[in-house]
Amino acid sequence: MTELASPQPAKAARTQGLVHIIGSGLLGASVGLGLRERGVDVTLEDLSPTTVALAADYGAGRVRTAEDPAPALVVVATPPDVAADAVERALHAFPDAVVTDVTSVKLAPYLELTRRGVDLTNYVGSHPMAGRERGGAIMARADLFTARPWVICRDEATPASALALVEDVALDLGGVLIEMTPEEHDRAVGLVSHLPQVVSSLLAARLVPAAEQAIGLAGAGLRDTTRVAASDPELWMQILDANREPVVELLDAIGADIAAFADALRDPAQPGAKRRIADLLAAGNSGVGRIPGKHGSSERFTTITVLIDDTPGQLGLLLTELGELGINMEDLRLEHSPGAQIGFAEIAVLPEVAERAISDLTGRGWRTL
Hints:
Elements: E1 19-22, H1 26-37, E2 42-45, H2 49-57, E3 62-63, E4 73-76, H3 83-93, E5 98-101, H4 107-115, E6 123-128, E7 149-153, H5 160-172, E8 176-179, H6 182-205, H7 212-215, H8 220-226, H9 233-242, H10 244-266, H11 273-289, E9 302-309, H12 314-324, E10 331-336, E11 342-349, H13 351-363, E12 367-368
Parallel strand pairs: 1-2, 1-4, 2-3, 4-5, 5-6, 7-8
Antiparallel strand pairs: 6-7, 9-11, 9-12, 10-11
Helix pairs in contact: 3-4, 6-10, 10-11
């Protein structure tokens, strides 16, 4: 019998003192799970008794009571439309604590708090670039933030100790620290997060009136481009409302591109039409090339598609044989063929090993495309 390795002891947490989390949904519960895994004492609060009890049951922390000591750090993980209210209450309730929020929009809460005249000395806005299509404590994960960018927004008045405490939490949870102003953050997420959400949702909406026969032809391309369309509409209404100016600018720009593309495609025989189409498609290639790949690099990989029987153990066998062949799999995506007992394993490998990988897998009886 093979002996199981003993679990490795967790590294000592950088975060010191009690952490109180306001909002026990996906992000709040995931912060709690990650910190509890590192031995940090965490208390929870939520407007919904059921939500906070569920997060506590999952191990994200314990429900805060009047007897608990004051926290060293408060993490506000509420929806964007009440983030400023929650931050203000936390600053008043715990005047010696550092307060951060993890909402996906940073400028609107900051401006609202400034308008109210709230002392923001102990406030540090932050945003972990992590999430899932579905929310709630039931979807929370301790490793949700691992290797994900964690934006820290500070100003000149932010004490070094307050900044260090927020950074410690981000690092304890596996985040990669990035410093931005609130304005820089909101414009950036407008491009890389909020615009894709709108485009994905609009594309998916075109499927509603489509015939079942057409839907049955859907493949990986449609699934990839509509994945985030399954996100919570109510939450996204709040996010888009709070960050509407950068998103509207981007929508206007992409709308102009779509109009130009449609005009060229409407009459491709007109002078210059084919070039305009090709240039817009090529610009898409260039844009994709800028998206960070594995380990934060922009290195591109070659994809090998392997046909596998849709039966237990086949994928495990394929991965085992890749290891035996000394082929490092950089990424993996599975797709099933509708109506057939077969699947497609799309394996990303370094370009220099792609030819050998295909030859060696074929030699072992695997079918590749």
